[in-house]
Task: structure prediction
Amino acid sequence: MTELTDSPFSEFVGKHPGEPNVMEPALLTDPFAGYGALREQGPVVRGRFVDDTPVWFITRFEEAREVLRDQRFANSPAHSAGGGSADTPIDRLLEIMGLPEHYRAYLSGSILNMDAPDHTRLRRLVSRAFTARKITDLRPRVADIAEDALRRLPEHAVDGVVDLIPHFAYPLPITVICELVGIPEADRPQWREWSTHLVSLRPELHPETFPEMIDHIHALIRERRTALTDDLLSELIRVHDDDGSRLSDVEMVTLVLTLVLAGHETTAHLITNGVAALLTHPDQLQLLKSEPALLPRAVHELMRWCGPVHLTQMRYATEDVELAGVRIKKGEAVTPVLVAANHDPRHFADPDRLDLTRQPAGRAENHVGFGHGMHYCLGATLARQEAEVAFGKLLAHYPDVALAVAPEDLQRVPLPGSWRLASLPLRLN
Result:
């Protein structure tokens, strides 16, 4: 596993005995076992977030779904005790990251940190781009992008080995979301570099990266305003210019920032994790090759078994809440632990076994990899489609593809609340 060095968050590890911090080695090195141990300790466990904020970890499937759909838990700390305070966990995190103060509103005001009615208003503005029909209509284009990247894979091979992440897993979703939003092709390599900086937890990169991204979006909006098209950015500009009360300038920039980052980062690592899982489970790989119609169910199982997001963002109790016999006081933070919930033996039979047939055909998803409730992932349908196309096309083009290293030699990026590989070296054969 790649080492995490010079992190400003490491100082909080071990500061509160009995309250595990998400930066602790046991949770970073093997989150499946680490958070699994917390799950068996109890469904509601006291711990600490990266900035030392006290948080209740919600570790079991039923309790996690309960919290995710319970509107007594708000995404914005302003809706809980202490609302209006300048010293919220979000503010402290942005301060630790060294972000210049006049840029912080673009992150603290993200749709991810909002509740109704603002969350509903903003989600409604962009949801039309992510309807099932829109995504279905987009599938041929997703397939074309995948085909093009796969044809080029041998060009990137060194001694017969190619890294799937930079040459397929990233280009596919970032191209799709940028076309959907309206990010010019020439700007997309820069967006990937920015996103790599943001997940590095290297504090020296953040004070420059966020302002560069925000300034870039402002410049893009000014340019697009002179020649509106049919992309999502143009639609947001029309809404903003028609009625600023429906969409402020800060909200428009933040929406673009959130959609592009969230629309490719997690999908890229779902593809990467999924390919690694298939190549280390030959029985399941052979099953998928022999039954391509299993792809939709397979994606659900891979999202459950090795999804890239292990923790939701924190939510805050707007009143005292009793959960599994634990009293969560008004204002206290909770975070559902998706990796623990998705491996909960109380809900899944033999949860650590990868079984591509586990998801019932035609039934609602039986996991919380994309969340649950009103904050369910807006781009889940698109992410599932991109993963289906990615796995199917990869195996069609290179049916004998194999890992170029032993499974235990795959290097991970040790990010709290995330499961991502640093590289995925393959032999295309």
